[in-house]
Amino acid sequence: FYPKDDTPGCTTEGQDFRDHLPAFQELGAQVIGVSRDTLASHEKFGTKYDLPFPLIADIDEALCRMFEVLKEKNMYG
Length: 77
Prior knowledge:
4 helices
């Protein structure tokens, strides 16, 4: 799970997962990115940074709620 496509932190993390993908695969793990961005946003983000794993558009926050990853903002509203 990550907050938003094409932001500095999320981009760095995506590139790190991309660069270390073989190590995850050797362990039998599959890398999947999930955020509340749209499918169109994911397609641009994945293409721009050559991300070789699926990005899931959780627009309705169903997965975020299921895995309890949403947090209340404590700054700026």
